[in-house]
Amino acid sequence: MLRRTSIATALLVIASALPAHAQAPAVERQEVGNRISENIPAIPAELVERLNRYQNTRGAGVAGWTKDGCLLVGTRFAETNQVHRVCQPLGMREQLTFYPEPIGAVAPMPAAGSRDGFVFSKDKGGDEFSQLYWFDGGSREVSLLTDGKRTQNTGPLFSPDGKWLAYRSTARNGTDTDIWLRDMATGQSRPVVTAGGSWSARDFSPDGKTLLVMKGVSAAESYPGKVDLATGALTMFPVEGGKAAFGDFAYGPDGKSAYYVSDEPVDGKPQEFQTLRHHDAATGKITVLSGTIPWDVTGFSLSEDRRHLAYATNEDGISRLRVLALPSHREIPLPALPVGVFGAGVFSPDGHRLALSINSATSPSDVYVIDLRDARLARWTQSEVGGLDASKFVAPTLIRYPTFDHVNGGNQGKSRRTIPAFYYRPANVPAGRRLPVVINIHGGPEAQSLPTFNPTAQFMANELGVAMLVPNVRGSSGYGKTYLSLDNAEKREDSVKDIGALLDWIAKQPELDSSRVGVVGGSYGGYMVLASLMHYSDRIRAGIDVVGISHFGTFLKNTESYRRDLRRVEYGDERDPKMAEIFERISPLNHADRIKAKLFVAQGKNDPRVPWTEAEQIVKAVRANGQPVWYLLFNDEGHGFRKKSNNDYFGAASVLFWQENLLDEKK
């Protein structure tokens, strides 16, 4: 059903809010199913056809192994990502789940378990109140494991014998994320960690009697411990230096020693990066296993027999894999892997094979399997690229541009700080042509943009001749704990200044047109878009804000309670009068009159992270100053658009927005 109405902005805000010189722009509103759009023109059929092949690329990600040696993979063949089974290299993908909502986490029953199947998570309309379900491998029946209410249930983890399932849940009070334990035979569930805060289960001991756990506070602060599953006794481990970040955490072969990732000080010396470490329970000795690598270890995995450990590092945005034999820690030979981005993989039940999902800038994610016995690599999936010629895809180059401050502070004898960015430059550009530019800013803010496959960047480069710059401004992960902390609390706008420095860099590049620059970003990246428009509207033509924060105070007030304290650590506490004053000063909502560039705001109605009210209020405020705004709202989406038809529409509308507001050299 389609409904179309035309109303004036004066109906959305009181007339007195309009500046005397502003003229209320008309608002053209359409409702099509779950989609509400305002001021978005009809998408031309020609554009839909040009985009079609790019929007029909798809990838595949490994979720785990079945008992019989097949792989469970996540991929999309219709609207959403579902679980499929593949039993040989480049074999048929058998779809196992069929839901209108995408599948989240997947945890297969261990080989030693008495049942065959897997646990998976699924929410409704992107609300992130995920429930856990059991898929029975024999009957193909699905049963609900959690309460089915407005609770978040994530992180399923089986004990080695498959008897117990540990998971994270907000079921106790809706705010704290506790650790629960389910007896898979009786169906009885009980909380085993209720100490308050955000907890996750990391690894069962080989005998299934204890569970390693982690309390997360922020990207830079977490606390490890263990819980005795019989008594419920929780023991926290000491943290060297008192405060540190921790990643994966697992028992060694003896069931007492442990492997973990941390940036704790080593021999009293502070560490910038998270390294893989081994704690010998018998001697108390801690060995840093990745100490020669000046980059973060992003994660590791252990084989079920705990005879091998695989770990991945993030080396300036490119992943590197290493596999160690245990307990000797001898590195074993591996085949050459495609250059790209991947995690530590998943070991087969017999421990002889390791499955990886490998993604690159010119290829969607696909599943590869390494046979550790002969260092042989086999490709198990080959995903579609919409019939496009993949050889014409643009691979980005890594550039670094100078920003406003200097390393270690000050400006006397110190080197200028540089910001890393990936630069997608169209091929075969005629001499003398200056390219329009889109700056794509990641969210998080502790995330990191990586050179992964981006069909939008490929379309912009190959079809529209638009360059894309993807910066990792201060506050991004992957570049050390100091860099991660440079935008915290009162330093929030320093990251916006990094975008100003990128505008300076663009102006100095002979092939780029500094008069035609756009910005796009989601979540925290959406805030960065609005803040960039607030500060640099004279240098930026247009911006697309996706599920972005428009006022930190209202965001923290309205975000889901289980996320609030975690976000306060990063952004600051709105209850502190000094911090509240900073929020009033830096929030784009309070300076909407300074946003003169064209704006497109897109949002999911069910977003639990950045509530849809953040989008509504910035749209109204900018329109109140006489500026037209494109606005898109999906009633069946949350923090981002996971349904193909919704994402396709948003993608087409975004391209149309750039065509109308960025590509014309005369505007």
From TrEMBL:
<dbReference type="Pfam" id="PF07676">
    <property type="entry name" value="PD40"/>
</dbReference>
<dbReference type="InterPro" id="IPR001375">
    <property type="entry name" value="Peptidase_S9_cat"/>
</dbReference>
<dbReference type="InterPro" id="IPR011659">
    <property type="entry name" value="WD40"/>
</dbReference>
<dbReference type="Pfam" id="PF00326">
    <property type="entry name" value="Peptidase_S9"/>
</dbReference>
<keyword id="KW-0645">Protease</keyword>
<dbReference type="InterPro" id="IPR029058">
    <property type="entry name" value="AB_hydrolase_fold"/>
</dbReference>
<feature type="signal peptide">
    <location>
        <begin position="1"/>
        <end position="22"/>
    </location>
</feature>
<keyword id="KW-0378">Hydrolase</keyword>
<keyword id="KW-0720">Serine protease</keyword>
<dbReference type="InterPro" id="IPR002470">
    <property type="entry name" value="Peptidase_S9A"/>
</dbReference>
<keyword id="KW-0732">Signal</keyword>
<feature type="domain" description="Peptidase S9 prolyl oligopeptidase catalytic">
    <location>
        <begin position="452"/>
        <end position="662"/>
    </location>
</feature>
<protein>
    <submittedName>
        <fullName>S9 family peptidase</fullName>
    </submittedName>
</protein>
<dbReference type="InterPro" id="IPR011042">
    <property type="entry name" value="6-blade_b-propeller_TolB-like"/>
</dbReference>
